[in-house]
Every structure is written in structure tokens, then in C-alpha cells.
Amino acid sequence: xxxxxxxxxxxxxxxxxxxxxxxxxxxxxxxxxxxxxxxxxxxxxxxxxxxxxxxxxxxxxxxxxxxxxxxxxxxxxxxxxxxxxxxxxxxxxxxxxxxxxxxxxxxxxxxxxxxxxxxxxxxxxxxxxxxxxxxxxxxxxxxxxxxxxxxxxxxxxxxxxxxxxxxxxxxxxxxxxxxxxxxxxxxxxxxxxxxxxxxxxxxxxxxxxxxxxxxxxxxxxxxxxxxxxxxxxxxxxxxxxxxxxxxxxxxxxxxxxxxxxxxxxxxxxxxxxxxxxxxxxxxxxxxxxxxxxxxxxxxxxxxxxxxxxxxxxxxxxxxxxxxxxxxxxxxxxxxxxxxxxxxxxxxxxxxxxxxxxxxxxxxxxxxxxxxxxxxxxxxxxxxxxxxxxxxxxxxxxxxxxxxxxxxxxx
Length: 410
Prior knowledge:
Protein name: Amino acid transporter transmembrane domain-containing protein
Domain Amino acid transporter transmembrane: 42-407
Strand content: under 5%
Keywords: Amino-acid transport, Membrane, Transmembrane, Transmembrane helix, Transport
InterPro entries: AA_transpt_TM
Organism: Sphagnum jensenii
Radius of gyration: 24 Å
């Protein structure tokens, strides 16, 4: 039947328009299939487990006894347990919200996509992306510093010959560690770094075990004290106030990882019969069991053994045996190699998406090469020029990880 004037005709009456729409959708699919977050969806459930372990169980676990020194036994254990429960709950919420039941087939592959759905296109983008970038870029800079410092620590511990061993400045070690990422950064997506991530997860669990087994074997130090640390030049109240705030930030930093959860889940396949949330949640439960086995013993045993005399790194505070400290430093190096890539992958996705989708650049290997190399060079540059950036762990935990990890349910 001929349609009346003013009615809307089906698109098949306008073949040229339909072809244009099909072409746009085809180009959009091509871009999605090229971007790192969505280019591969054949991951297994255990991939999500060790990706989450690599992202969460970082070098920050070694500072948990130091946080306990300011929080003391009761509040410290309560905060640690509460953080574990709350972040597990918020993680479950993110996993559940990855796919919309009301719109089958729609997936929030990126953290900011979920934020835009909840808060609106513009507001959600400006609320989520800055915090997510501060968290991920900040972590990568801290990990470049940690990797360089750990390399230097292992070298200084193993090479003690005053004639044959020469002092190498930390700047050189940071550059050496960072240069490896110029190659690792060219891995296209999460699944392509699965071996690196798995190795990093093993290393993180290994040095976490060393961080509590060594103090347990050494026993408590003489005249151990569990009072809040004081300082000669400042009041105890002032030190306690800032120390407690920094300790809370350290705990928040230790439970980081939610910023990349949706991106990790995007690498899993999803069907109506088996949505991606099923294998993802299985991997998350395993990851959080590992987190509990790493965090609580390190915090409890480290604080029990050294009290308020423990430093920011419980292994360095122990001071011996030398071989264990050297091996632990090398384990930290292996771990931060993988965790750097886990946090960098969503940043790569954002940068490449803007260049390809917004600025309409061709998605080529050369584009990926220079974009990712530029990011790696930036993190190395900041780590070298601001060597105290690692001291801002508590600050980063407060302003970036707390909103995106603890406050998701609000």
C-alpha cells in the first residue's frame, strides 16, 4: 500500500541512505575490533583471576604493616577487613552491570561507558575519565619508580665488591626498567599479555609470602612498641593525624584494581546462555581469596614483628637475609612489569579511540607504535624528574582509588 504524505518510509525505500548507515556501522565495528579492550573476546575465566591479582596485589602490600603502625591493632584490622568486604561488594556490582539485562547484547566494555550511562554522556565522561586516568597513569608512574628502585636494590645487595662494582644512579635503573615497556606495550590487547600477567601474579604472591614468612621466622624485635609513631620535631598528635590519613590512603591504594575490571571483563566471551559475568565473577572470587591470603598475613605478621619501627617496605625493614631481599626485589620487578601493562591497556584504548574515532586517523600498527611509545616515555620522564612521586601513594589512594573503588555503589 502506498504511504500517505508525511509518513515515514522504511529505510529499504532509500537504498543509498541504508548503504551509508551500513558503512558507518561497519567502520565502527572495525574500530572496535582493533581497539585493545574489545579486539579479543576469547579469554578464559582464569584469565580474569590472574589479571585481577596482578592489578590488585601490588607493591603496596609491603606498606600495609607501616599503615598498621599508625592505625594500631583494632582500627587497622577493622579497616583492612572492611576494605576487603566493601571492595568485593563493589566489584560484584561492576561485574553485574557490565551487561544490561533490559538491552540484550549491550556491554559496557569500559569504565567510562558505564559512567556515561548512569550520569549522562557528558557528565559521566567528565566525572569518570579524569579519576580513572589519575589512577591508572599514577599507578604506572609509581610502578616505573618501583621497578627501577627494586632493580637498584637487587644490584646493591648482590654486588658488594668495592672494586668490581660501580654505583649506578637510580635514574639509570628507572630508564632500564622503563625501556622494557617500549616492547611490552606493543602487545595489542589483554589476552596477548596473559603470560606476562600470569607471571606477574605468581611473583606478587611469592614476594607477599616472603614478606610475612621472613618476619615470622625472625621473630619479634627487642623492645617492640605498638604505640603511634612520634617525631622529635613535631607533636605526636600532628604526626598521628597525617600518619593516619596516609595510612588510610595506603590501604585504599592496596585495594586498587576496580578501574580496569570492566575492561578485563570485556575480554571474556558472552552469550545469552552464559553471560560474561559468570566466568568473570568466578575469577574475581579466586582473585579475592588470593588477596586475603596475601594482605592479612603481611599486615599482621609485619606489624607484630616490628611494631611502630616498621618502614614503608617491610622486607627492607627486616634487613636480612640478603639473598631473600635480593630475590624479593627481583620478584617486585617481574610483578610491576605485568601490572604496568594491565593499567596501561585502558589508557592505550582511550588514546587510540580518540585518534581513530574522533580525529579519524587510520588505525595502523604505526599509530599504535608511536602512541604507546609516547605514553611509556611520558611515565619514564615523570618517574625520573619527580623521584618522590612514590611518596604520593596515599594521596593517589585518597583522590582516585577511593571514588572508583569504594564508592561505586553510591
